[in-house]
Design a protein that fits this description.
Distance between the termini: 25 Å
Strand content: under 5%
Largest sheet: none
Order of helices and strands: HHHHHHHH
Shape: globular
Structural class: mainly alpha
Radius of gyration: 16 Å
Helix content: over 70%
Length: 139
């Protein structure tokens, strides 16, 4: 995520609070999708003693994902407010919200490695949706 701050400084030639806030929010997106990814080999990780959010929140994984993704969406909305994005941005925020909560979390099955990988890979699309929405927000 340091690319958020690095890119901002390269373009603006100064550091601002906006990329730092976005950076912190993006950490929670990563925590969410990395937790999902970790369920693919959770049994092996437990055997060899690796510590992970997948293991730590194994019994409440969906609740942890809801928390992470809620923080991420909240931060993304705050960034939109600070940057004075247009109203279209907030309307199109429904797409990432739907994707995170009604696709990823709803369909998440920690016992199905194929399902886990499919949901994890869907974050590529989510990143493209968020980037597109940021561009739309500045129109």
């Amino acid at each position: 995520n340091y690319g958020l701050i690095l890119g901002w400084v390269c373009v603006k030639n100064q550091i601002d609070i906006i990329p730092i806030i976005f950076y912190l929010g993006a950490i929670f997106w990563i925590l969410g999708f990395d937790t999902i990814y970790g369920f693919q080999d959770i049994n092996d990780d437990e055997i060899i003693g690796i510590k992970s959010t997948s293991i730590k929140f194994k019994k409440n994984s969906k609740l942890f994902l809801i928390l992470c993704y809620t923080i991420f969406i909240t931060v993304l909305t705050i960034v939109g407010l600070i940057m004075k994005f247009n109203k279209i941005f907030y309307f199109f925020m429904l797409i990432p919200i739907f994707h995170l909560f009604f696709y990823q979390i709803y369909n998440f099955n920690p016992k199905d490695p194929k399902n886990i990988l499919k949901i994890f890979k869907s974050n590529n699309l989510l990143g493209a949706l968020i980037l597109s929405n940021i561009f739309i927000g500045k129109i």
